[in-house]
Amino acid sequence: MAVNPAVYGASTRPPRGDYGRAADDYTCTQDYAAYTAQDHALYHRLYERQSAQLPGLASQHFIDALPLLGAKERIPRLEEVSERLYRATRWQLVAVPGLIPEAPFFTLLANRKFPVTDWIRTPAEFDYIVEPDIFHDLFGHVPLLFNPVFADYVQRYGQGGLKAHQLGACEMLARLYWYTIEFGLIREHGALRAYGAGILSSAGELAYAVRSPEPQRLPLQIERTMRTRYKIDSYQQTYFVTESFEQLFALTAPDFTPLYACLRKLPEFAADAH
Ligand code: PHE
Ligand code: FE
């Protein structure tokens, strides 16, 4: 996720949240030997539960790329996945100790480096975790980085983030991230599917986002996403649907500078506003 460190709770057990082991760009080394058998077993359980419910709910792009993460029985070595990813789309994975500040986050994305939190949740957090861990970052985000169009979109987002940072427009841009990269829906052969990592890594929200009559689903519209607040502690009440990654890319291609200036003067929408 990594959009706004301030909104997530403080970290608990080491190496969770130990930023002392990170370099200036906030990356660190994945201490693979530090994972316990319980950590690997938890990854396996999370993977099994999530992959079982993908058919009919997840984007086919995601389903097709998932095996590229490697064996599901243990936490992947980031370097191995990174090499595979680099060959496919010239993206790389870097380990980070957790959420990182906006500017270094955008810089990594602009350089086609995706930060992956290296620690895994505790078994007590099997159903729900408030901050991204390796399961969310890897299982949720990495498969679509194998898709060339989506991969380019995320890089553009990073470049746009650096600009938004200068313009004081990060909050608006973060909402676009939230409603696309984290909670985006896509229409594939006429049917709704999820491509957002926050949905795809959530046990309960996947079926809810795609099938429940409760939330509203709007056609993706950049202005509207940027004006719409979001909830971080409940299922979303509004989702935005794109027709394709090409459409997502095209809609976000224009320079956002004039858009930010204009949107600043307009009221926001509540997360559940109709
Ligand atoms: N076009 C955006 C800008 O000018 C950059 C961007 C691209 C942002 C894709 C998000 C996603 O700021
Ligand atoms: Fe995320």
TrEMBL record:
In the UniProt record, does the keyword Oxidoreductase occur?
yes
Enzyme Commission number, as recorded? 1.14.16.1
Question: Where, by residue number, does Fe cation bind?
Answer: 136, 141, 182
Kindly give the CDD domains that the UniProt entry links to this protein: pro_PheOH
Give the taxonomic lineage as stored in the record: Bacteria, Pseudomonadati, Pseudomonadota, Betaproteobacteria, Burkholderiales
Q: Which GO BP terms, alphabetically?
A: L-phenylalanine catabolic process
Q: What class of enzyme is it?
A: oxidoreductase
Q: Which InterPro entries match?
A: ArAA_hydroxylase, ArAA_hydroxylase_Fe/CU_BS, ArAA_hydroxylase_sf, Aro-AA_hydroxylase_C_sf, Aromatic-AA_hydroxylase_C, Phe-4-hydroxylase_mono
Q: Which cofactor does it need?
A: Fe(2+)
UniProt pathway: Amino-acid degradation; L-phenylalanine degradation; acetoacetate and fumarate from L-phenylalanine: step 1/6
- Would you identify the family this protein belongs to, as annotated? Belongs to the biopterin-dependent aromatic amino acid hydroxylase family.
Q: Under which name does UniProt file this protein?
A: Phenylalanine-4-hydroxylase
The record's annotation in NCBIfam families points to: Phe4hydrox_mono, PRK11913.1-2
Query: Boundaries of each Biopterin-dependent aromatic amino acid hydroxylase family profile domain copy?
Result: 1-274
**Keyword Oxidoreductase in record:** yes
